[in-house]
């Protein structure tokens, strides 16, 4: 009688039956032949032992461990496979296999355990062999109940994903801006995040245009029919957001939710594409804002929620949204807790509860490096040095600052008293008082202000310097007034005791100015020079700084540009970011508008302009009022 016999076909143990047909025995059949010395297969006698056919093969009594592997195909394409793990090696398991040979060893496989792992993935919306979203990746990474060994071989870094996504964004209809290549990548990354309905932290360094990238996303989402979106920002820059959106995405309908006349029902908010409000208003109006299902929830200067226990942190995290976007140049200011709070907003649960996080991570470099791969898929941070080739040599950043109601009232009182004293034909003396007030109220009256409290432009300056110093960079701060330089020198060195701070104005002898600049250059750390644009606006080479802050505008744009050139000149190794701080709806806005007009004239070489300040400009400067914005909000 013909007998069946064992043989090895490829990577499978097989049997040829007495009719010559090839059949594949189960793992139990093979196991019985080896460990129970079974000599027949389904009633057929086997002509020889299996070990004689594969004498070098080692047979395991124990099943191979089921495993779930996460891996990259490309930086933005992640897949999940179910297979087995043994001898510190992952192997895919062919469909239908209940056994596998790896090298010189045979293993049985529990198909029930493999199916359990597949069912577990399916229950979480993950398709084996299919593309894995960032959100699902992070969910799997943070899981503690996987029924199989979880092997994470994926390397997902937001900047790599951005580079891969940037080529696919196409034209954004209605965007009134030319994006730099790195900004195109950033918008592509934000679109991927939005489409996958998760969240992220946009943490590009100052000067790289985070606001423009977010506006491009807001426009892209609106074009897809996904509205409304909510932007929450410090009160000082809410108006700046409105203006930036109007400039770069004029087709978007924008509503500023502020003031005593703000909306009291959701129906007055939902018709708009974008609603902009402040953190303080978001706290007060949480019941109202919480009744709207927001498409995007954008937190600008998101370090404002770094304290997990703060009321504002809890309030904004409760707001319903499809996608969360935290925008900040300083994702970690003091402690790793800062990053936990931002990540908890962007993708709740990513880093566990705050108590679990604190138990696992301390404020040291080792723990920071352990934390990095966990947050890297959702943290996009590019530095100026990294994208310098994509940047112009000089980046101008005008920033409109909104006066608080109390400051606007004080400004209006001064404006009216100035008009009463000098009349509508008042000249530069009258506007000078308003200029001084905008620089700092205490320059007009000592009773009007403390430099460290409740002065909106000063608060914004501190926010800028915080971000600059966080990157260990330096700044030049220009102000017309000696009194303001004195305020800077009394307050700012106390905030950053380890920094370098000096001033140069008319009180500093010419012979001492260059040595001060040399010390600034040689100082190995962050710091600032406080400069008068006339006294220090020419002749000095101050390339140690790559940020220039014009704290108050000048009537003559040539003076401003000459001052900026102290840092923006030969030997400067980085692009220079030039910040123009000014109060919206004030004499400073008139000055900035006129300066822009004057630059246009110079560019076009218009003949016959004598450079004098037209009387109509003075009239406008005395008529404009920051209260008009509050009055509009009350209507």
Please give a structural write-up:
This protein is elongated. It has a 7-stranded parallel beta sheet with strand order 16-17-15-18-19-14-20. Strand 23, helix 20 and strand 24 form a beta-alpha-beta unit. Helix 16 packs antiparallel against helix 17 and helix 22 (587-604) runs antiparallel to helix 23 (615-623). The protein starts with a strand and ends with a helix. It folds into 4 domains: 5-55, no CATH class; 65-152, no CATH class; 158-390, Tandem AAA-ATPase domain (Rossmann fold); 394-634, P-loop containing nucleotide triphosphate hydrolases (Rossmann fold). It has 24 helices and 26 strands. The longest helix is centred in the middle third of the chain and has 18 residues, at 405-422. With 635 residues, the protein is of the alpha/beta class.
SSE layout and pairing:
Elements lengths: L4 E5 L2 E5 L5 E2 L3 H9 L4 E2 L2 E2 L4 H4 L4 E2 L5 E10 L2 E10 L2 E4 L6 E4 L2 E4 L2 H13 L7 E2 L1 H8 L7 E4 L5 H9 L14 H15 L3 E4 L7 H14 L5 E5 L4 H11 L5 E3 L17 E5 H6 L1 H4 L4 E7 L10 H8 L2 E7 L8 H11 L7 H7 L4 H11 L3 E2 L3 H4 L6 E8 L3 H18 L5 H12 L16 H15 L3 E5 L3 H14 L4 E5 L5 H13 L4 E5 L15 E4 L6 H8 L11 E8 L3 H18 L10 H9 L3 H8 L1
Parallel strand pairs: 6-11, 7-13, 14-19, 14-20, 15-17, 15-18, 16-17, 18-19, 21-26, 22-24, 22-25, 23-24, 25-26
Antiparallel strand pairs: 1-2, 2-3, 4-5, 7-8, 8-9, 8-12, 10-11
């Amino acid at each position: 009688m013909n007998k069946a016999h064992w043989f090895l076909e490829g990577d499978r143990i097989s049997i040829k039956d007495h009719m010559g047909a090839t059949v594949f025995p189960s793992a139990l059949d093979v196991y019985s032949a080896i460990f129970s010395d079974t000599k027949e297969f389904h009633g057929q006698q086997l002509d020889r032992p299996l070990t004689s056919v594969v004498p070098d093969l080692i047979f395991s009594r124990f099943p191979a461990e089921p495993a779930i592997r996460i891996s990259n195909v490309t930086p933005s394409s992640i897949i999940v496979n179910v297979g087995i793990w043994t001898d510190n090696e992952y192997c895919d398991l062919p469909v239908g296999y209940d056994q596998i040979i790896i090298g010189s060893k045979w293993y049985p496989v529990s198909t029930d355990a493999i199916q359990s792992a597949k069912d577990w993935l399916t229950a979480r919306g993950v398709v084996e062999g299919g593309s894995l979203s960032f959100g699902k990746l992070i969910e799997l990474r943070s899981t503690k109940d996987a029924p199989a060994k979880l092997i994470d071989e994926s390397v997902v870094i937001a900047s790599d994903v951005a580079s891969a996504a940037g080529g696919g964004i196409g034209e954004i209809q209605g965007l009134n801006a030319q994006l730099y290549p790195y900004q195109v990548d950033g918008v592509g990354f934000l679109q991927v995040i939005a489409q996958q309905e998760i969240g992220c932290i946009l943490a590009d360094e100052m000067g790289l245009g985070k606001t423009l990238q977010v506006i491009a996303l807001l426009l892209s989402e609106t074009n897809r029919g996904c509205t409304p979106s909510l932007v929450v920002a410090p009160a000082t820059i809410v108006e700046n957001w409105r203006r930036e959106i109007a400039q770069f995405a004029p087709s978007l309908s924008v509503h500023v939710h502020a003031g005593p006349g703000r909306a009291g029902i959701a129906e007055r908010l939902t018709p708009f594409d974008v609603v902009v409000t402040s953190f303080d208003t978001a706290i007060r109006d949480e019941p109202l804002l919480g009744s709207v299902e927001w498409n995007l929830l954008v937190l600008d200067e998101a370090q404002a929620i770094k304290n997990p226990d703060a009321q504002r942190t809890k309030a904004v995290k409760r707001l319903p949204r499809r996608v969360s976007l935290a925008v900040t140049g300083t994702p970690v200011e003091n402690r790793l807790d800062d990053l936990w709070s931002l990540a908890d907003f962007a993708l709740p649960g990513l880093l566990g509860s705050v108590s679990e996080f604190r138990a696992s991570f301390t404020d040291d470099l080792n723990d920071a490096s352990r934390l990095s791969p966990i947050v890297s898929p959702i943290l996009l941070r590019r530095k100026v040095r990294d994208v310098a080739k994509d940047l112009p040599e000089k980046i101008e950043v005008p920033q409109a600052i909104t006066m608080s109601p109390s400051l606007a009232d004080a400004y209006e009182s001064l404006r009216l008293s100035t008009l009463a004293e000098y009349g509508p034909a008042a000249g530069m003396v009258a506007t000078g008082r308003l200029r001084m007030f905008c620089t700092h109220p205490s320059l007009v009256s000592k009773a009007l202000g403390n430099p460290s409290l409740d002065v909106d432009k000063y608060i914004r300056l501190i926010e800028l310097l915080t971000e600059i110093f966080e990157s260990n960079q330096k700044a030049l701060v220009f102000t017309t007034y000696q009194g303001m330089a004195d305020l800077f020198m009394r307050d700012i060195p106390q905030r950053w005791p380890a920094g370098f701070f000096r001033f140069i104005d008319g009180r500093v002898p010419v012979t001492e100015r260059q040595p001060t600049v040399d010390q600034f250059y040689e100082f190995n750390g962050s710091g600032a020079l406080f400069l008068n644009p006339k006294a220090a606006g020419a002749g000095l080479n101050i390339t140690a700084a790559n940020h220039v802050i014009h704290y108050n505008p000048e009537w003559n744009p040539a003076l401003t540009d000459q001052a900026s050139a102290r840092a923006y000149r030969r030997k400067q190794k980085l692009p220079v970011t030039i910040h123009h701080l000014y109060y919206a709806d004030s004499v400073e806005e008139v000055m900035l508008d006129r300066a822009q007009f004057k630059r246009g004239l110079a560019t076009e070489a218009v003949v016959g302009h004598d450079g004098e300040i037209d009387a109509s400009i003075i009239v406008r400067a005395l008529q404009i009022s920051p209260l008009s914005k509050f009055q509009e909000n009350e209507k």
